[in-house]
Amino acid sequence: MKPNTIKKIIIIVLITILLLGGIFTYLYFGTDLLKTNGQLFFKYLGQVVDVQDGFIDRQLIEYSNKKYTEKYEDNGNFSVDIDMSGMDSDMLQTVNDFNITYSGKIDNTARKNEQDISINYSSDVNFPLKYKYANETLGLQTDYVSSKYISIENSNLKEIAEKFGVEDTSEFPDTIDFFSDFTNQETMNLTAEEREQVINTYLPIFEEKLGQKEFTKTKENDVTSYSVSVTNQEIKDLILTILETLKNDSILMPKMEEMFKDVLDTMNQTSDEDMTVQSLIQAMIDDMNDADIEEGTNTITVSQTNRKLSAIALTINDTSTTVEFKISKTNDSGNLTYGIEMNATDNETQENARYFFTASYQGLEELTSVNENYQFGIVGNIDGEEQQMIYTLNCTDTFNDGLTIEDFKDDEIQVLNDYNAEEILTLIMKIAERVNEVNTMQMEQIGFSEYGNPLLFAFPLTSMPILIYNQASNTVDESSMSEVEMSAFNSKFTQYEGGQRGTSVRNLLQMILSNNIAETDENRKVEVSGVVTMTKDDTEAPIDEINTSSTYHVEIQYNEGLVSEIVITKQ
Q1: What is the pTM for the complete model shown?
Q2: What CA dihedral angle connects 404, 410, 415 and 418, to 10 degrees?
Q3: Contact, 281 vs 209, CB < 8 A?
Q4: Higher pLDDT, 375 or 11
Q5: Separation between Cα atoms, residue 96 and residue 121, nearest integer Å
Q6: DSSP state of 35
Q7: CA–CA separation, 113 and 102 (whole Å)
Q8: Which three-class secondary structure state does DSSP give residue 380?
Q9: Rounded Cα gap, residues 334 and 381, in angstroms
Q10: What is d(CA 516, CA 457) in angstroms, rounded to the nearest whole number?
Q11: Read out DSSP for 71-94?
């Protein structure tokens, strides 16, 4: 064979090898064709912290940062979709007609925010109010009560707490930062090098614990999933190893500690020297080591769409229940959506409940006007009844460098900080009486006077003022109450004392029920006797036994200064 011929053959062989090598390299690194299910599972799991292909989205970070550095106008709508077995259809319709709309302006750099809010019961019955934060003062105003803003200066809040008899105000902040970015992107941002180091630190843990197992692959439409089965003990070992590694992580731990400190600073709280993120992680480790692990098999699933991580799911199975927890992300032509979902099924009764939260964004590419949509819901067969509670918030933020928010004027504001405790209490009682009068009138207008307010049925916790009061009072020694606190507690009931129409008595019964459910101190629970009875432990108010067209007399009895029993007689 001639030398030139040999050279040609060698060249052809080398070119062929190079071409095949290039093709092989492309197929292995550029596609998923030559990878095993296990390799693909770990590949997409490793995308979690990737800003392009993982759950962290660069455009969303840019949008969040822009909201804290520029001015914008907002408008939104909050609505409910409730469906309860046995609930009267007319009542249900009225509850679902209820919604809240708002519009306003926000300037975080100047620490200003003003909103026009409307609580809408029907197309022509609503309760409008205004919210404004300026001059480091927070104010609320409604024409139904006053032309002035009732406000609190965001300073010396400990002093206000002391006016209400709170002896230990160490847990009260002097101020509250309403404009802090709790997400703290600057603190938690990872450089490309740091992200790679995080992946190289934690991905091998999964590979070591799960790498020898059998992985399965499924495909549905454009979603491909890779799954592996693990026991409860293996899950425990995996979590413990991750926590032990995280506790000494030189990249993530300082950032988490800084974020923890920033949150405390925002609330004007100081942390105990022994209470750090590292100590909290150690407490979790200790609890897990002490916990008994039942037998059970679980499934971890990683899903990808168009070779980008789209979901991570964990399915937990034991003898009594099956629970699936899933986190997902989709980005379709600039429409970004995150989802968190949990499905729980009782294996014996087959009762099930689905809990979900979704957050979606449109307009992130231009960042001029962004629509946000949030939805939280509970749907399923709970306690033998089909139930549905879905809450939706839809809002649009439009950036506008030219907007202005005026400061409060002296003649449009009443500052509670300037009053003593008795004066504040008197003012609050008058406001409560007026709001109750307006509520009674509006409920009659929409034909809902028998039930108090759609808010009571739209939310599981039906008495927010009572809950707020209870949370504040829990910071005080539960064995004693100041005279001001007693007055504040009693005033919720004494406003109904004497002759009352049936509609007001029904409102009173609903308030007593809410109080008794929220209270943990038996001394602060109230009984009802007379034409209707209600014990401290009742879970339903006997409002149907009160005739709205009748008149009743309400008598209040006390025990050691607190309202303890209410006697209702028919006149």
Answers
A1: 0.70
A2: 140
A3: no
A4: 375
A5: 9
A6: S
A7: 12
A8: strand
A9: 36
A10: 17
A11: EEEEEEEEEEEEEETT--HHHHHH
